[in-house]
Structure formats: structure tokens, C-alpha cells
Amino acid sequence: MNATAPNDGSVYLAPPDVLVPEPSVQGVAQALAWLEALAERDGWPARTLFALTLCADEALTNVVSYAQAQPGQPQLGLRLECGRTPYGVALRMEDDGAAFDPTAQEPPELALSLDDARVGGHGLRLMRHYLHTLHYQRQGERNVLLLGAAWAA
User: Fold this and answer.
1) The pLDDT of residue 120 is above 70
2) Beta bridge partners of 139
3) What is the pTM of this model?
4) What is the dihedral of CA 110, 25, 140, 68, to 10 degrees?
């Protein structure tokens, strides 16, 4: 995984598609349907679609569940860009919630047995497994998370 890829928009081979979903569970569903439509339109390999939608679902669900609007804002703002890159497909997620770098978090240790396993907290491990690129940057008052899935034929 490349954790230092730029996320300033220069990673795209062409102008990306843009979606501004509402920051809600319905917005997450809208974003996932949008990604599936882009994949069908552009002929993404099934493994690329699976990796990106699985990780986008995890990241977006965390944003709409835990991110808070900045003081003075009526609600959290969310913006998505998606496009082809030299290595596959990238999804750039921007929100204007409080600063939070998910890539700086350590996933919990794996349990030795199912009886000892905890529910939750393993999304970052999953994202690191499936993504080629996972990069966070704070740009002004916005969190920017870049998810890159390899073109897996």
C-alpha cells in the first residue's frame, strides 16, 4: 500500500466524477450506488469495485456516524471525487468535520479465538488490506481521505 500518494487531484488521469451526498446513512447508500454506476459505465474489474465500495462504505459510515460539523455550520459537508489513476481507481473523500486522521489509528489486536473477539474497530485493518493507497491530509478546515484500489483484472 502506498501511504504517501498525493491527494491534490493530480492523481487522476482525467477530470474525476463528483458527488455531494448528504451526510447520512442514505447518503452513504447513494455514494455506493454512484460508485457501482461508475464501475459499470467504465468497466472496472469486479475486484476493484469490491475493494473500493467495501472501503468507501467503511470510511463513509464512520464519517456520517462520528464526524461533527464545525461550530457555526448547520451540518457536516461531504464531497466525493472518483476517477481513474495510473494504478487503478481513486476515491477522494472530503468532509468539514473536526480534524481526524484515521490512518494514524492502530487497529485493535486480533483475538485468539472467536469467543474473545470484539465487534467493531477492524475497519482500518480491512481498508489497509484491500487498498493500494490510503492517505489522509488536513487541508484548511477539511479532512481529505484518498482511497485507491488497484486495477485488479
Assistant:
1) no
2) 142
3) 0.84
4) -80
Q: Which of 48, 54, 33 is nearest to 124 (CA)?
A: 54
Residue 60: its H or E element: helix 46-66
Coil, strand or helix: which one is 133?
A: strand
In a 13 Å sphere around the CA of 82, the CA atoms on its Cβ side amount to 23
Work out the burial of residue 56: count CB atoms within 10 Å of its CB; fewer than 13 is exposed, 13-18 middle, 19 or more buried. Answer: buried
Asked if 54 and 83 count as a contact pair (C-beta separation under 8 A), the reply is no
Q: What is the pLDDT of residues 38-65, one digit of tens each?
A: 999 999 999 999 999 999 999 999 898 8
pLDDT single digits (tens) 63-104: 988 777 666 666 788 999 999 999 999 999 999 888 889 888
pLDDT at 66: 79
7-20: per-residue pLDDT in tens? Answer: 445 679 999 999 99
DSSP state letter for 115: G
Residue type, 110: L
How many Cβ atoms from other residues are within 10 Å of residue 38's Cβ? 20
Question: Cα separation of 142 and 118, whole Å?
Answer: 31
CA atoms of 23 and 138, how far apart (whole Å): 19
